[in-house]
Specification:
This is ABC transporter substrate-binding protein. Pfam families: SBP_bac_1. With 435 residues, this protein is of the alpha/beta class. The chain has 2 domains: 211 residues, Periplasmic binding protein-like II (D-Maltodextrin-Binding Protein, domain 2, 3-Layer(aba) Sandwich); 193 residues, 3-Layer(aba) Sandwich (D-Maltodextrin-Binding Protein, domain 2), CATH 3.40.190. The chain is built from 18 helices and 13 strands. α9 crosses α10, α10 crosses α17 and α17 runs antiparallel to α18. 51% of the residues are buried.
Length: 435
């Protein structure tokens, strides 16, 4: 049994149909067996793409006429909020509905569950057998996160890394976490906080991951809980102390939406969050720090600087699609080397090494941000949360010691309790995975 998870229309054109038809035929053959297909849909049936309302999907929507001309079939692209998208997948895919062809998915949040449910087509032969597509060109960490149980189930299209945002008028960028703590405490005075960041129990886990890794810890070690180990406890204590002593009041209720405006309004010296949100600080409509904001790599901890470099959004093909060949053509087009360079040049960070190695694709970013992103794209780890079926539940468990630290409570006993709870969770989660 499946486990649940917590239009754009343009006319068809005939130009390029013959070349596209050959590629579509090959793609359809490679994906045979991914659904219970009973006859090819008529030419009037659109290719249906379902995704998140995101700058990447908005940009691709504007370029759809190019793709429709290429395959001779119109495209219907539905853009939803994250909650709407999750609910739609849960309802439609549980019912084996054939009205989704291409799916935007979060490889780290839901791909494992979707694979368990049999909702994603296997793309391995396609991505590895197409020399022009260049699967090896994708950044190593996002590429590895596209694989579940030895099968490529998605291709990354948007990536993100943590950035240390800082006020250049107040300080220089610290190189280590010790320097960050010392400077944040020193700059906390009056109306300015030394540091702001996510503190909400579940929502803070992904940003905390880079602190955990840089302290030498991990969520799981050899398949067992790692959050009760000394390295994890030290990372919990560090992050808690940073927000308790240098952060704003009410930090335990802060997600991205609450933390980001505090830095944008000049009320914090440092802020760690995803590089994808950088433009908020350059927009004079919401920011007063556009002339003073600096961008720096994640500082080094006892184990060095170990930031994440994740595929925040990827593309997959529904296992129930009756247009699998056309769906693969969409993936090839939307994640091609040319498209990734094109979109990255407009400020949307992609997942291909060829794009990150091309200075022209980074020209739209501030120079210090471009250098930071480029360095962390090479070295970052491909995960920022535990690799489990029920990610939301796991994050809730792991986030409990974070809250204790921010509230100034002893972290070690809470971490030990959370470690035992997470260990039990992993046993149950693995049973579900194998069931």
């Amino acid at each position: 049994m499946s486990m649940s998870i917590n239009s754009h229309h343009l006319s068809r054109r005939s130009f390029g149909r013959l070349a596209a038809a050959a590629a579509v035929s090959l793609g359809g053959a490679a994906l045979t067996g991914c659904s219970t297909e009973s006859g090819k849909p008529s030419p009037d049936t659109p290719l249906r793409v379902m995704g998140i309302n995101h700058v990447w999907s908005q940009a691709v929507t504007k370029l759809l006429p190019e793709f429709e001309e290429r395959i001779g079939r119109r495209v219907s692209m539905s853009l939803l909020t994250a909650d709407q998208l999750a609910n739609s997948y849960n309802v439609k895919l549980n019912a084996s509905a054939t009205d989704i062809d291409v799916m935007m998915v979060r490889a780290l949040q839901e791909q494992l569950l979707f694979a368990h449910n049999g909702w994603l087509a296997d793309l391995t032969t396609l991505v590895e057998g197409d020399a022009a597509y260049g699967w090896a060109d994708f950044l190593k960490a996002p590429r590895e996160r596209s694989v579940t149980a030895g099968k490529v189930l998605s291709v990354p299209v948007v990536t993100e890394r943590p950035v240390l945002y800082y006020r250049k008028d107040l300080t220089s960028a610290p190189k280590t976490l010790d320097e960050l703590m010392e400077t944040a405490l020193r700059l906390t005075k009056g109306d300015v906080f030394g540091f702001v960041g996510r503190g909400q129990r579940s929502g803070a886990v992904s940003m905390w991951s880079s602190f955990l890794y840089s302290y030498g810890g991990d969520f799981t070690i050899d398949g067992r809980s790692g959050i009760g180990r000394p390295e994890a406890i030290a990372a919990y204590e560090y992050y808690g102390r940073l927000l308790e002593r240098a952060g704003p009041p009410g930090a335990t209720n802060m997600s991205l939406e609450q933390a980001m405006p505090i830095f944008a309004q000049g009320k914090a010296a440092f802020y760690v969050d995803a590089d994808a949100i950088y433009s908020n600080f350059l927009d004079p409509k919401i920011s007063i720090v556009q002339d003073t904001v600096g961008f720096a790599p994640f500082p080094a901890g006892p184990a060095g600087a170990r930031p994440f470099n994740i595929p925040s959004w990827s593309l997959g093909i529904s296992a129930f699609s009756r247009l699998r060949g056309e769906a693969w053509e969409f993936l090839r087009w939307a994640s091609s080397p040319e498209m990734v360079k094109r979109l990255q040049a407009d400020g949307i960070p992609g997942a291909r090494q060829s794009a990150w190695s091309d200075p022209a694709t980074l020209a739209s970013f501030p120079s210090d941000l471009a250098g930071t992103m480029q360095a962390q794209a090479r070295t970052g780890l491909g995960i920022d949360r535990p690799d489990v079926l029920q990610v939301g539940r796991a994050r809730d468990i792991i986030g409990r010691p974070l809250v204790a630290g921010i509230l100034g409570e002893p972290v070690a006993p809470v971490a030990r309790e959370a470690d035992a709870e997470f260990a039990d969770f992993l046993v149950r989660d693995n049973r579900h995975r194998e069931g």
